[in-house]
């Protein structure tokens, strides 16, 4: 027993993996599975409200306008590109090209910030110009409060995830820049990448459900 304890003290990496998967990766996968169930519940609630008889649910083209859908499609493309750049971060880190890894991470962060900026612009436009019934109690035209509520909940909850992801990526970038994250610490970047790819995948589902169908 004493020999085993001495071995563990000499090599702190022993016991950090189970079946070849790091504890950090298992933790992130566990979180993502639970988070995916939350998004699935929100999307299911959206579908239930939308296809309830008499819901007076507007068509996306009526609610957002053609330009609004195009703008969100561009925003979706930006987020997908940031996911691609995250792949390059890990690839360059594994090759030992840390300068390139830092540049790709910076591109990922900028992509996330652009997404949030465009979403903020969209919210402002919808609230002030497109949906007057949100603040006008005397508005008499037919509208669906459930549509606005589910829209802001879904896109806002996802936007919160993007914000957390941007902060997460900034921390990784600072670690790469300072040298605290080296070419051997690929699991750190890989775990951050899992979160960012999840955020990207969920947005594709939200965009399809809310803006296209």
UniProtKB/TrEMBL annotation:
Molecular function terms from GO: cytochrome-c oxidase activity
Biological process per Gene Ontology, one example term: aerobic electron transport chain
GO cellular component assignments: plasma membrane
Keywords: Cell membrane, Membrane, Transmembrane, Transmembrane helix
A Pfam family: COX3
Taxonomic superkingdom: Bacteria
Domain Heme-copper oxidase subunit III family profile, chain residue ranges per copy: 1-213
Compartments reported by the entry: Cell membrane
SUPFAM superfamilies documented for this protein: Cytochrome c oxidase subunit III-like
Membrane topology: Multi-pass membrane protein
Keyword Transmembrane: yes
Protein family: Belongs to the cytochrome c oxidase subunit 3 family.
Name of the protein this chain belongs to: Cytochrome oxidase subunit III
Organism listed in the record: Lujinxingia litoralis
């Amino acid at each position: 027993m004493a020999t085993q304890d001495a071995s563990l003290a000499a090599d702190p990496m022993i016991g950090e993996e189970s079946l070849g998967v790091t504890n950090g990766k298992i933790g992130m996968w566990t979180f993502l599975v639970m988070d995916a169930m939350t998004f699935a519940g929100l999307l299911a609630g959206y579908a239930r409200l939308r296809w309830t008889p008499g819901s007076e649910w507007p068509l996306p083209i009526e609610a957002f306008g053609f330009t609004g859908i195009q703008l969100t499609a561009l925003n979706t493309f930006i987020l997908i590109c940031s996911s691609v750049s995250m792949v390059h971060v890990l690839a360059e880190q594994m090759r030992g090209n840390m300068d390139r890894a830092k540049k790709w991470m910076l591109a990922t962060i900028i992509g996330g910030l652009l997404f949030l900026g465009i979403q903020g612009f969209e919210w402002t436009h919808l609230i002030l110009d497109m949906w007057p019934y949100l603040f006008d109690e005397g508005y008499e035209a037919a509208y669906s409060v459930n549509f606005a509520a589910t829209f802001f909940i879904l896109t806002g909850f996802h936007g919160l995830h993007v914000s957390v992801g941007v902060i997460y990526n900034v921390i990784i970038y600072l670690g790469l820049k300072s040298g605290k994250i080296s070419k051997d610490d690929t699991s750190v970047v890989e775990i951050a990448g899992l979160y960012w790819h999840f955020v990207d995948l969920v947005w594709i589902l939200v965009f399809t459900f809310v803006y296209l169908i």
